[in-house]
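hi! just following up on the protien thing from before. the input was this:
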Amino acid sequence: MRDATRLSSAVIVGVFAAASFVLAQSKATQPTVSPTAVTTKAGTAPPAGSKTTTTVGSVKMKFSTANTSADNDSFWVEKLDIDGDGDVEETNLVWDDEDRVLFAFTSEALACKNGGTATADLLVATYATGNARQKPSGSGFWLADLDQGECAAQTASMWGCRFDASGKETACGVATLDEKADDIVIVTESK
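and the predicted 3d structure came back as:
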């Protein structure tokens, strides 16, 4: 009985140590993103001459915006400060008119909260008025694809945050993309 109690205690201590490691990693891993330039564009008409597409993003963050086989969305490229660092980047924008979500995607250097930098793919999504998900207008999420070591990431992972209509982050952590819900799923949350 005594050995079983020791084993249980050791397992519990191990679980707490692992959880503390993941949480500590998460707090140090976050890139600094302020999506204001994207949120102010949500719901505005795509520019004349935009093309059509059925996807947004690239590589690990590429997903379909088509709701049906005949559905397509407006696509254009413009210079935009997608992460709020003061530098404009060539940004791919997709307006999903059925779901009323503006997606912005680029690959660029991101500042990390730990003082480092990361070169990462960045996706920002903002819900417009009347969106199909019934999210507050101006709210949304961002998702960055980090390599091991970038922003102190212990392993290659995607890091994301949801933000409210004022741009304030409401939940952040290791995340995955849920393309069916036009959202992210935060796997390991950091406060």
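The chain has a mean pLDDT of 85.
The chain has one domain: 2-190.
cheers
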